[in-house]
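[scheduler] slot 2 assigned
[scheduler] job type: sequence-to-structure, two independent chains
[scheduler] chain ordering preserved from manifest
[runner] begin chain α
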Amino acid sequence: MIEEQRSQWGSKLGFILAASGSAIGLGNIWRFPYTTGENGGAAFVLVYLICVVVIGIPVLIAELSLGRHTQRNPVGAIKTIVPKGAWKILGYLGVITGIVILSYYSIVAGWTIGYIVKTFTHTTSDFGQFIADPKSEFGYFIVFLGLTMLVVLGGVKEGIERWSKILMPLLFLILLGLILFAITLPGAEAGIKFYLSPDFSKITGKTILAALGQAFFSLSLGMGAMITYGSYIPKNTNLITSATTVALSDTLIAIMAGLVIFPALFAAGMSPAQGPGLVFNVLPQIFSQMPAGTIVGVFFFILLAIAALTSSISLLEVGVAWAVDELKLTRTKATLALGFAAFIIGIPSAMSQGYSSFFSNLHLLGKTGFLDIVDFLFGSFALTFGGLILSIFIGWKWGSAKASDEIMYGLDKNYKPVLKIWSFLIRFVCPVVIFFVLLNIFEIF
C-alpha cells in the first residue's frame, strides 16, 4: 500500500525548511516590496502581519492536517474524505494550477539567472530587449525549469529536503549581508523610516485587501502544495508550531527584503512606488551607481534565483505526487512528463514579452499579454478560489472537529484552546475574508 511506502521528511527542521522554501519565493522579494511601496510602507507591513496570523496560519494548518491525515496529494486527499461527488475537482484544480503557474513562473525566474550574468558582465541596460530576445528568454527558461526538475527527481528526502537545507540558510545569509550593506548607504535612513515607521492614515480598505492578498499568495496556499508537503509529515510532528514557524519565516524574509530595497531606493533618490518593474528596471540602475555594485547586484539576483527555485520545486511536486499516487507512475516519469508539460504550456508566455506581437498584445479580462492573463487566471483567481473552497471543505465537509483530532495527534491538552480559536477562524472568518479577496481581484469590492 502507498501509505506504507510513502516518503517522509527526515526531520521536523527538514520539513520546515522545505515548506518555508515553498512559501518564500519571488512574491517575498519581488512582489512584497513593491506592494509595500504602493500602499504606504510600514502601515501596510503592520496590516500584513495581522493578516498572516488571522488568515494565513489557520489555512496553512488546515492544509497540512488534511495532507497528513490522508497521506495523499490534493486529489487523493479529497477523494479519501469524499470518495464520490464533485469535490475532487478542487484537487485537480490544484494540480493544474501548480503546473500552469510553474510554466510562467520559470520564465520570470529565468530572468533572475539572466540578470546574474548581465549584472556580472555590466549589460543590464535594456530589460525590454532582454526579455524580447527568444534565445535568452527560452535559454534561461529551460535552465531554470531543468534545475527544478533535477531537485524533484531526487525525491522527498534526497531531493527536496536535502536541497532546502542548503538553499534556505544560503538565502538567509545573502539577504543578511545585503541588508548590512543597504542600511549603511548615505541617505538610507529615509528608506528605513518609510518602511518601519507606520503612518496609520495610510490604512484604507485598499491597503487591507492588498495585505490580505499578499499574505495568502505568499504562503503558497490554495493549490495543494501544503497538502502535498503535509502528506510527508510524520504523525509525531507538531502541526501548530510547524505551520507558525513556516509562516513567520516567510514573513521574516519578506520584511528583510524590504530592508534591502527601500534603503537602496531612498539612497539613490528614487520613488518607492515603482511597481512590478522595481527589481529588473530600477535596482540594476541603483547597483550600477554603488561602490561594489556589481558584487551586490550579482548576490541580489542569486538571492532571487534561490527564492524562486525553492518555490518552483513545490509547484512541480504537487503534480508529481498526484501522478505517482493516482496514475502509479515512477517519480522519474512523472517529473519528466510534467516538466515537459510546463515547458510546452510556457511557450506562449515566453513569446508574450515582445517577441510575438499576437501573444504580447492579447487582451482578456483587462490584462494585456499572455503571461499576465494566465497569471491573473491561475496566480490570482485559481489560488484564491481554491483557498476559499479548501477552507470550506476542511472546516465544514471534512469538519473542523475531525481536522482538530488530526492536529491534536500527539499534543497535550494545553493546545485545546488554540484549536477552538483555529476552528472558529477556519469555519467562519477565513471563508468570508478570502471571498472578499476574490471580489477584490475582479475589482468588485
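[runner] end chain α
[runner] begin chain β
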Amino acid sequence: MPLSFFLLPLIAQIGPGGALPQAPLQIPKPKSAAVAPPSSPELTKPDLLGQCLDLAMTRPSDAIEVAQNWLAGAKSMKDRAGAKQCHGMALVRIEGYAEAAPMFLSAREDTPANEADERARLAALAGNALLAGEEPAKALAALDLARGDALSGLDAKQRGGIEIDRARALVALDRPDEAAAALAEARIAAPDNHQAWLLSATLSRRQGKLAEAQMQIERAAQLFPVDPEIGLEAGVIAVLSGHDEAARKSWLSVIKAAPGSPSAKTAQAYLDQLGPADASLPK
C-alpha cells in the first residue's frame, strides 16, 4: 500500500484582507469503508498478504477476522508481520487509526533488521495512521523511527516520502523551521516528487519567503503541471507578491483544467475575492 493512500489534500485559510485558502500540510481522514458482508473467505498460499490486503480494502471486517486467524496460526515472523500489517490496513479503512498504528509498529518489530526499507515502510504507515487520527506528536515519533530505518535502506523515494510526512507532523506541532528542514531533505532524497516542492512552496509562503515559494512552486508545476493544487498555490503566492493578474491566470487555469471540481470551486472563490480584472491591462 503506497503512502499516498493517506496523503489527501485539506484546505486551510489565511491571507491579508480576506480568507485565502492555502495548499495542504495536513491530511484528513479517509472515507469510511462499506460494511462487510457476513461471510469470511479463506486465504490461500502463496500470496496471503496480497489477498488479505485486497480484502481489507473492500471488506475490512472480514479482513480483521482473517488476519487474526492468520496470526494465531503463524509459524514464522514473516507471517506474523503480514497478519499484523493486514489487520492494521483493515483498521485504517474503518478509521480505527489509534488501533492500526500499534499493529504496523508491531509488524515492523517482526521484520528482520536487515530489511531496513520494509521496516521503514511499516513505521511510516503507523505515522500516517496517527496523522489521520490527528495525533501529530505520536505520528512524529513513528516517523522518526521510519526515518532511522530508511537511512539504512536503499529506497531514496521512500526516504523522501517519510520526510514529507515528518513535515506534516511538524507543521501540526507548530514547528515550522524543523518542517522546512524535513522538506529540504525530501527534495534531496526525491527531487522528482512534486508534493515535496508543492508543500515546500506552501510552507515558504507561510513563513513570508515569497521568492523561495515562487521558485518551489515553479518546480512543482514543471514536475506535475496538471495538479490543481499547484495552480491554487501558485495563485496565492502570486497575489501575495502583488501580481494579481498572474494569480488570476493560475486560478482560471484550475477552473479550465478541472471544471466542477472542489479545486475549481476554490479557485472561483479566490477569483471572487480578487474582483474583476483591470480592463486597462492587455488580455
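[runner] end chain β
[qc] chain β: Strands lie at 12-14, 20-22.
[scheduler] slot 2 released
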